[in-house]
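Anyone able to model this chain together with iron/sulfur cluster?
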Amino acid sequence: MNVEILEKNQYALKLYIRDLPLHVLNAIRRTVISEVPVMAIDYVIFIENSSVFYDEYIAHRLGLIPLDSENAYDKYKSPEECMEAGEKRIFSTDCFAKFDLEAEGLENGMLTIYSGDLVPSDPDIKPVFDKIPLAKLVKGQRIKLEAFARLGRGREHIKWSPVSVATHKYVPKIIVNDNCNGCGKCIDVCPRGLLKLSDGKVSVDKSRELSCNFCRLCEQVCELRAIKVSHKENEYILYFEFTGALSPRKTLVEASNILIKKLDEFEEKLKNLGVIQ
Ligand code: SF4
Ligand code: SF4
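re: yes, here you go
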């Protein structure tokens, strides 16, 4: 397997992967989406809410705030251990990080409550972004609540996923044959502008080739069937957009560990059943 980084920052990772079967790539992608735990608010106790927003609406918005979970694995119990505790309303500190929120409308004008107004009990578990609007209050309106976050997995609810986007894309293979007469029709219709004329024939701008979206408009307008768009075998672009709850590195390492553990368990079960030795 060969991996090349095409883009990397705190919130995005784009990899060019060669010689990896699609089902393995997809297993990694799906594990990242639905198995890697992060913290998210799961229970909210409303002490006061005289805003125009229903309790459920505010609780839902609170749940979707990405929370910094980089140090959560060392401090909080697993999702499976804490799910049951939460259902019994036992908000123990080894499972739950607490947040307080208290706000009142202004004498003049409107007050916007932001994610950064949540007061965390654990400084390690706090909103990744401070400026996510939660609700607005006018004079005389108040909100006072306690919110409890725990580790969870995306398969339970997507608010516990460390990624907002996890996709793979095929790598384009664009071939122009000798029938090309350089009419330029394909260049005009290509929405990604990756075809160009050189020496009276169409060629692919290599710096933009990966942006091809496989629309095949170029093939449709070519009366001479001189251009053919397909994809390369066992080569893929894997793209993740992270919520910021976990670093890209920690997300992928954790996903790999979870996948290996699941495969070990599967192998063990097959051995116990006598399917394999
Ligand atoms: S439309 Fe066909 S013939 Fe015309 S430039 Fe493109 S590939 Fe060549
Ligand atoms: S398939 Fe679409 S994006 Fe790709 S080269 Fe053809 S026209 Fe351009």
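The helical segments are 22-34, 55-63, 72-75, 79-87, 185-189, 217-221, 248-272.
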